Known about the structure:
Blueprint: E1 16-18, E2 21-23, E3 30-32, H1 39-42, E4 46-47, E5 53-54, E6 60-62, E7 80-81, E8 85-86, E9 93-97, E10 101-105, E11 110-112
Antiparallel strand pairs: 1-2, 2-3, 4-5, 6-7, 6-11, 8-9, 9-10
Domain Protein YjdM N-terminal: 4-32
InterPro entries: YjdM, YjdM_C, YjdM_N
Domain Protein YjdM C-terminal: 46-112
Amino acid sequence: MDNLPNCPKCNSEYTYEDGNLFVCPECAHEWNANSVSESNEDELVVKDANGNILKDGDSVTIIKDLKVKGASSALKAGTKVKNIRLVDGDHNIDCKIDGFGAMSLKSEFVKKL
């Protein structure tokens, strides 16, 4: 039997070859047999309201007034947010906003500066 690589997602040893792809039967991950690095495929891609790709550490502007639960006022359109951090989930931006504190935002309500 060939010495096949373990799955890069779940590290399963039960991978098999299907044409030019490796397949993991445990997590259903497929990757190119000729590829050396799989880090690009697992990278989180988050886009702002205009379709620009966001990265950790970017600065963004809020494009519409957002109500904040538990706060007496809303986040106003035009508020600048510095040093964002991308996370997986519905609210895919974590940040700190002056006057509000730690906050999670949806990328559809921001635009990149």
